[in-house]
Amino acid sequence: MDLDAALRDATRRLTEAEIEGPNREARILLMHAIGADQTGLLRRRGGKLTEAEAGTFQAMVTRRAAREPAAVIIGHREFWSLDFLVTADTLIPRPDSETVIEAALDYRRDRPPSRILDLGTGTGCLLLSALSEFQDAWGLGVDLSPPAALVAEANARRLGLADRAAIMVGRWTDALAGRFDLILSNPPYIPAGDIPGLMPEVERFEPHLALDGGPDGLDPYRRLFGDLPRILLPGGLALFEFGIGQAEALVALAETLSLKVIDVRRDLAGQPRVLAVSHP
Asked: Is 186 annotated in some ligand binding site?
């Protein structure tokens, strides 16, 4: 099969499926199918695909046209310049979540944490990215999903961080007895009634366990904010990602529970995205 023709056909199919950026998505899938990077793809333009490459590429395009996310199809996604394994059991790491790591560095660069906790770790992207920056720290990731915890463990090994990261299956802080000086979390924050209206890539293919934040999307924060005095060291920092339109309610909740609100950080699109809190 002619490579350029295959790419054009894939772009057409993804356009018809209403995929945003269909040519870019087709190129990502093609690079994975032939085992090449951007340079390798350019070198092969005008050439042919092998029968195996063509079959793999066509199967991947069919899955993407059905709105399965490209990150799940190819099995990995970049986050904080690190490469993370991704499966259908985990949320796909998103650039918005890098705001959590940026905030951690801004607030703790001069006082690096020694013990980091990531609640709802998923792929481990927050925990492992933080450990890559705070190189004397040890971290614990907690997730309710055993398959997600296995993905986080695999990512820790792949990134050479397994000696400083432990992954545990559990419900939030139930099994925790120690305290941490940096806590990170991207908990479920989608109101349950809004999930059926999400884009198909999310509603059909990402785990609802990691999306459903209860009737108003804030149930996990009520639980976690209440636990902070027990698990956050005095002078420690907790960073929580949240959804669009939730900042005001979360600030009010934190203040009601006598937490100290340090900042509301905005993401690259200018949306309020991360709440930084501590406790007296």
From this structure: yes
